Each structure stands twice: as structure tokens, then as C-alpha cells.
Amino acid sequence: MKKFLGILVALVISFSSFSGLIVVSGASTESTSTARYVMAVKKDVTVYITRTGKKYHRSSCSYLRKSKIAIKLSSAKKRYYTACSRCHPPLK
Ligand SMILES: [Zn+2]
């Protein structure tokens, strides 16, 4: 009976070390997908708006001679600004 218990303990130990290996490999897969998620996040570009218009522009656009307000592209989109047809600023 004692011998049987010894085998059982050995089995449990080998099983738990095996499942430990599974946990380690699972964690490394998760960190890889997290890194991919960070890479996929879009860079927030700066665009320029005027005080009166509802279009956003590149910094070099001639429509910005009257006023030029720097704004993040994401905020410009939230405020329903649309891309200027003359200077073709980035859409995203
Ligand atoms: Zn423009």
C-alpha cells in the first residue's frame, strides 16, 4: 500500500509540473497578442482647423492664412470636421 501511495505522489508531481509548463506557454502567447494590439493602435496625427470653417487641413494649406488652430485628428473627427479637398490631409 505504501508503494502504491509513492507512485500516486510521483504521478501527481509529474502532472503538476506538466500543467505548469502549459501555463507558462499560455502566458507567452498572451504577451505576444498584447504586443500586436499595441502595434495596431493608430498614431494620432495633428491637423489644423480655422475659426470659422468645418474642414481640417495640413499645416501647409493656404486656407489656413486667416486662422490656424492645431487639433488632434481624432478630436477633429469627433467635432464633425471633414478633410479639406485642397490639401488632402490624412483621413485616419
Ligand atoms: Zn486645406
In short:
The protein has 92 residues and is an alpha+beta fold. It has 2 helices and 4 strands; from the N terminus they run αβββαβ. The protein has a 4-stranded mixed beta sheet with strand order 3-1-2-4.
Note the topology.
Layout: H1 2-40, E1 46-49, E2 55-57, E3 69-72, H2 73-78, E4 82-83
Parallel strand pairs: 2-4
Antiparallel strand pairs: 1-2, 1-3
Give your account of this protein's structure.
This protein has helices at 2-40, 73-78, and strands spanning 46-49, 55-57, 69-72, 82-83. Helix content is 49%, strand content 14%. It contains 2 helices and 4 strands, in the order αβββαβ. It has a 4-stranded mixed β-sheet. A hairpin with a 5-residue loop joins β1 (46-49) and β2. The chain is of the alpha+beta class and 92 residues long. The chain folds into 2 domains: 1-41; 46-83, no CATH class. Residues 21-25 have low confidence and may be disordered.
